[in-house]
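Entry 12.
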Amino acid sequence: NIDVTSNLSMKNTILNAKNTNNIAVGGAGTFNNAYLNIPNANAQFGSLKTTNTVVNLQNNNAHNTINVTGNYDVSGDNLYYVDFDPTTGSYDRIHAGGAMTGSEDAYVMVNSNLVNKGDVAKGYQVYDVFSANGGISGVKFGLEGDTAYSTALANYQMQNLGNGKYAFKRT
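Predicted 3D structure (tokens):
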């Protein structure tokens, strides 16, 4: 476990916590040009700011959560590696109790990893990967990675619905 009662600030560095189950930062988590490798952890921050940061949550399990008590501020290009399980509907998620806001250049790319690629019902499954009680504004979202596959029964496609929501569609 990583437990920091005050603020945690990292610039031009790597936090490799792949064997850590829980990360708790009582104050602000500020990451600039950082790589956060936290595939097995649930993380809690008082507030969060990422600038040109990579966050890896992928572990083929689709159950990791980053909770931010306050606001989440985004600037620059950020990349999140997340798992989606279309069979069970579970997925990795990031939630802010306050608002998620971005500067003019704020961009979040989600690299999707589809796990447990079994059959799912026709239509959409919507994933609120990013959510904020105070709303999301000023952030552009993208999607890359494992966004499509086929089975003997159907074809599947991940779609970016904008504002932190993604849909998994059976065609």
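Annotation: The longest strand covers residues 22-32. The chain is about 0% helix and 60% strand.
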